[in-house]
Amino acid sequence: AASLEERASKIRSLNYALCFLPDELQASFKFLIDELSKSVTDEEKALRRELNESLKSVDDDDHAIGKLGTLAQRYSKQNANELFETLRTEILKKMYIYRENVTSVLDRQDMQSAINIVKKILKYKESVGSHIPEVEAVYKNVRDLIIKNFLNCCDTLVKISTIEQTHIVEEAFHNMIICISFSTTFHEKNEHFLPEHVLENGSDSFLKMYEYLYQNSEKYRRAIDGLHIVELGEVLRIAKRWDGLLQKIKQCHLKHESIQVLVKNIMNVIPYTNMIAELQKKISYLRDQLDVELISNDTTKFENKREEFFGNLMKVVSTLKEIDSKLKDILPFKVEVDKVEDELKKKIQKLGDHLLAIASKGELSTHDSDQFRMFYNHLASLNKYAARIGFDVRQFLDSSDKRILDQVMSLSKEIRSSSSDVTKVAKLLTQMKFFAENLSMFDSKINAEIDEALKLYKQREGASVLMQLTMILEKTDIGARLMSEHSALSGEDWRKRREKMQNQDNLEYVLKELTGDDIVTDVLATCYQIFRAKYDDLVSRILAVFDQRKDNEPDLEVLITQTKALVAKVTRKPNTIIWDYSFKDKIPELLAYIFAVWTLKNTQHYNALRGIESARAYLLMPHVAQVLAIFRILGIGYKKYAKTSDDLINNLVEIGTGEGKSVVMAVTACVFALIGVDVNCSCYSEVLSTRDKNDFASVFKALGVEERIEYGTFNKLCENLLNERCNVREKVRDMIVNNRSAISVVGTNAYLRPKVLLIDEVDVFLSDKFYGGMYTPSVYLRDSSIKELLDTIWQNKTVRNSDSIKATSAYKTCAARFSNWTFILDEAIKDMIAALESFQSST
């Protein structure tokens, strides 16, 4: 059939031809032509009406869009070019409007509206795309706009950490979900609306967003575990800001791989509400820690536990205050730190009241003093921290100090006013000593006041009255301690102890009681007699000159010079000391000189009684057992056949309790030091070792041998031997830190003097702990790679084999750093794994 345009053209031709027909034919033909023209016009009007109605309904009826395709196809077949052009023009107008609308809604981040428009465009593309190619171009243009917006949304998610306005990220995520959802339901020639590389970009942005939220969650875990409040505040604020986004992600049910992976991962992120709930539990736990009594059995018995307890207590208070100060704007509840502080202040006030009540008593019992010490020590420990809660603990300590010391001063004044009544003075001194012994925090002040009271008492009543006083004091234990610990009375203590040891100068008795291997008593007796005669002569001659002067100490310069002159040259080999008979014969005389120096260096109590007949009883003097013990140590008094050479042999000497083994060790050390030998005097106790060294320091200095005599513990002896030529720890540390497999050569030309070891408490030395044990020196290594390895192992507590740890980058870095020492790393890792297996968290 001809098209409308063709029919209209032919009708125009007929109308033209009509003019050439006879008049009688024109009328009949004109009627027919008019009928045909009317028919064509009516048909065209109908088609245009149909077209207009279809175009009007496309916005509301998607089926109308499909009908446009039918019309386009019909117009094409019928060559209805004018109608087709009208259809094309109107459709393209729609397309361009759609494109502008897409641009507009995307600018408003309204992705859903953009997708709805795309769906319309796709309908047009499916319907008329084959007839109107421009529709395809518009579609591609709009698709590119949406992809660009999608990528912008991806970029927004990646930059989540720098964006303050949360709705921007939430909208971006929402828009991406809309796009991905549409893309999964859209299929055209096996192609997704969003290309694969764009979807991959989306997956990457989801991962980056997740990593940011997860890292914040991990920071929260570290912050809450370590109660790092500043960091905790930061992570909580971030968690609160993005909690809405987190919930939207969790509620997303889109069946797309990238979304499903994100939703699964996001479950590892701790929600803000959970963080707050855990923090609230943590705060409750901290408050519970403060709901304790300030005094316990452990805090009373152990100072370190007391200090630790109060340190932790105040740390808890400080933590609560910091939480209240820095997290107030985040927490949905009150910490009530003021209430916590008030409760703690009440408990401290109660302790202070108890302390002052006891300090105010006129006389303290043993129980009272125990209670006083308990309250005082706890308050003294609290004083270091109480300022943090604005409480003045010092007031209680100062007030109790004054009340106790006032009582002591009152007793001291009473001593001065009761000089004629020795019994009363002894009682007052005992009361003062009770305070000193039972209130250790004041012992130095009280003992100083006792010394001052005794000094004034002695000056006013004379030295002889002290004998009467000590006769009363020695009847009680506390009196005996007064005598031994206070210089004004210790001279009397020395004298009385010498009186009690009736056989200390009885050579025959000591030799009879002496037991041991290969003893020649005649030789020992002869040597002792030589020693005693010389010693008595030296001391007598020097004291005779000293008594005529007013010096505080005798002049020992000549005596010391003579002592050094007696020392002969001794043959010294690396492991032995050999002395000939001429020097051995001089040992009794040399000991006499050394003991004379010792005696005359301790004349303080003799000085106070110079001129009195019994003054010499106040001198420190050696007794027979001490001298014979030294003879035996030095190889004197052995049967000749029992010794195969002149080498100095090892000796084990047992001396009874109180017979002065510290004197034996010190004088023996002087003999060896004078002949150029280094002496180590070793003991298990640092306290005892230091005490003995201080007791004889003046003698060592006078003889010029203090640099050759070393006092110390068994451990210190090992350390000295270990580091004799160099600091072994430093050398080993340097070798490991610099990853060397060999230590640098240490110079060995330095001369080392021969050594002698004198051991005190040899039974302790021979125990399993020391001689039977192993001394294992260690060195501390510090390196960033080691720390990283430790952190990695700690963060992976469930690891139970070394191979898993060796596979980590931290181990590989550390092993590369210390490639020559991996065996140490491997052993340390085994120890750490074993420790982790038994580890139990305290929280």
Automatic annotation (TrEMBL):
Which InterPro entries does this one have?
P-loop_NTPase, SecA_DEAD
* Ranges of residues in domain SecA DEAD-like N-terminal: 651-707
- SUPFAM superfamilies xref list: P-loop containing nucleoside triphosphate hydrolases (SSF52540)
Q: Which GO terms are recorded in the biological process aspect for this UniProt protein?
A: protein import
Give the organism's phylogenetic lineage: Eukaryota, Metazoa, Spiralia, Gnathifera, Rotifera
Q: Supply one GO CC term from the record.
A: membrane
The scientific name of the source species is: Rotaria magnacalcarata
Q: What is the protein's given name?
A: SecA DEAD-like N-terminal domain-containing protein
**GO MF, one annotated term:** ATP binding
Q: Which residues cross the membrane?
A: none
> Where is the signal peptide, in residue numbers?
none
